[in-house]
Amino acid sequence: MNDWVRVCATSELLPGESAVAWDGDTPILVVNLDGEFYAVEDKCTHEDFELSAGAIDGGQVECTLHGARFDLRTGEALCPPAYSPVPRFPVKLEGGAVWTRDDR
Known about the structure:
The protein is mostly beta strands.
């Protein structure tokens, strides 16, 4: 298994905010949704474009390139042009920090 990557202090990621961490070559978007933390690959499955550039609303992130939306809790693609889900990653809170890793 890969080692955990520190994203930021928990106090730096307030509800509705996001941050991007890198696990090797993998960018990971971490989002605080009302105190629950979720992580998905920061790459739209329709085209290789960072999801972190898009708006986060109601547990969804929208890719600014073509408007595909993904559920941040499940990774599910919610509308075209994306049909494949984004990979999800584990998140843990430990030592006052948010951690994630690419566990594929």
